[in-house]
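Ticket closed. Logging final result for DUF4220 domain-containing protein.
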Amino acid sequence: MEQLHDGMFHHANLASEHVPPPLIVMREENLLVEKQPHGYNLIRMADSGLVTIDKVWLLDDTLNSWLTTQHKDLCLSFAMYKLLRCQFARYKVSETNFAKANNFRRHVLLEDKDDERVFGVIAHELSFLHDYYYTSLPVSYAKSWLPIVSVFISLSCIGYCLFPIIIFIVTIPGFSYAQIICHQVHCHHESDPLHMPGSGADVQFGKLFYDLLPLYLLVALVVLVEAREIASYMSSNWTKVALICGYVKHTSWQKSSVIRKCVGLVLRTRCKIMKHWEDKMNQCSILVLHARRNPVALLRHLLHLPDQKKKVPRPVKTAVIDTVRRYERIKRRSNGTTPLQLQVNDDLLWSFEEAKGTSDAMLVCHIATSILEVRSRGHKQPLSDHEIVATHLSQYCAYLVANSPELLPDDAVWCRSIYEAVKKDATRVLRDGGDQVSTATPEEEHQQLFKLLSGQSKHHVLKDGGELGRRLAELPEGEEVAWKALAEFWSETVVSVAAACDNIDEHAEAVARGGELVTLLWALLAHVGSVHVDTADAAATHGAPDAV
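Final structure:
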């Protein structure tokens, strides 16, 4: 890409920072390269049909009203996914030396004020990564004609299934026919004149309904499966990127109004079943004062699943993206290490340095946040953005300790053991003193909870969490100041955890199960140069593959 930027693909308009460098989108397999002592060099580019992101950006929006910023971002996600895929394959990526690409990514991902756009770009990138490793879509799009053949085969299957059904409906209008009809035939005998041939009535067994219904159900199932296959191709992001690239490559398409309308129609299609990023975050809580007793909650408890899964609120997205924008300042403040601080103005309330590790520090602050949440519940006011951010990220971090400790910098076995110990102690304390908490008013509930934790708990995490919660609840500056401090603390914690976890295998598993907020932030930090992945060590440990 650096050679493309300096070579014949360099465009005069690329001087603008709003126009991206030639990040490769598609058709790089047509390039010819030769190996040199210090890497590879392109030796044929003019007739390769290579599509780069700058060509998509430079399309005339006035003639192509269907090509929105969202579609351009989709092509950008595809180009970035190819760079991220190299890291997952343990190849050494020198993209950080490509200054033009770094500047543009920072402009799109950090300087842009639309946080939803930033989340969308990275979510689509992880979606492409999921498809590449866990679906057959990349194989289907290896050749441009393969998706067309697949759609044609699906349409043929639908027609082949519907044709006999239509014949059955036309020839057999109802289900009242019997499955078996027996005719009674009596032989004539001269000595018995009462026995006449055909005097007996026909005997019918069963209904044709029982034969045709399974057939109809089977045909309906096949039709639905094939229709889903067609819809997956029509609404797939792979199809949209391929169409945009074909539109860029073929000038004749750009001159045809019919083709422009058809391409625009496909780009506007949406299908929820094709979304791999659910835009949700798992939630867990140690202090469960009013446990749900429904069958779903009991089943989740037996299967050791998270308490619930919530949609990522917009304030949470805004908070974490703002934290990513100032992450370099956070690292300088902590001298490049993990310890973070919970402080109000200049008063230090808590620091990670007071804990044994990241996991128990997060659990301490999670308990304190839960106590402050109990106190705020009695006010019956709409939740502020700071409270939404603090409570959601607090419960998400508790979920990471409980269910995904591999994504944390601490040892996974130790994380699970400390969570189970704290959870067991908290359950015992709440069980023994549950009557005191349940009979208290909302204003008194947090005080009773603090007394239980400080007096009856045995684990130091519960005691420290209870004390921190009391200090937050009694801040003279007010409750909103406490929520603001917690929101900033939790945002910095989640971003720092994402930057500290460089285990590519665990992020790959997170992508396989639908994505994690930490993985999304890790990919974002990797693209803006705030995370260094030691692919050389990973390759030595796991073995680099032969091809990406």
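Residues 209-235 form the longest helix (27 residues). No further action required.
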